[in-house]
Write a structure and sequence with these properties.
Layout: H1 5-15, H2 17-22, E1 25-30, E2 33-38, E3 45-47, E4 52-53, H3 55-71, E5 78-89, E6 98-107, E7 111-119, E8 125-137
């Protein structure tokens, strides 16, 4: 069960143009648990006065990491699509590399639930996410 690590790595890092543009990297892969690294780029700043990362960058990383974790819990003949995403922004994201850590909470027949924490250097959580993904047969 679950997509192979190299398949998920290739899909997340090379096949999705937006992820490639952002520079996301698979940092950890295990069944039901995925970490994605997002190397900092100055264009990620949303508030130049602090400076702090744009919330859209954080939510994109959360959604992508949760989806990758869901992929680790489904068959390779299946795919996931986001049906619900909740993001809680807990503190300003510093202008540095950030990591999202997703865990599958429950994998049902049609829905997979994940929880995601985003951290920079240290243990402080920048943002927390919770996402639900619809499980569907792959189109090829």
């Amino acid at each position: 069960m679950g997509w192979a690590e190299e398949t998920v790595r290739s899909f997340m890092e090379e096949k999705i143009p937006f992820n490639l543009h952002l520079g996301m990297k698979l940092a950890h892969y295990a069944p039901g648990e995925v970490h994605l690294l997002l190397p900092f780029q100055p264009s990620f700043i949303g508030d130049p006065r602090r400076p702090a990362l744009h919330g859209g960058v954080l939510s994109t990383l959360i959604d992508t990491c949760g989806g990758a974790a869901a992929m680790s819990a489904i068959d390779e003949g299946e795919m996931v699509s986001t049906v619900d995403l909740r993001v809680d922004y807990l503190r300003p994201g510093p202008p540095t590399d950030i990591t999202a850590k997703a865990t599958v909470i429950r994998r049902g027949n049609r829905v997979c639930l994940t929880e995601i924490d985003v951290v920079a250097d240290g243990p402080d959580i920048i943002a927390k996410g919770r996402a639900a993904y619809n499980i569907v047969a792959s189109r090829g």
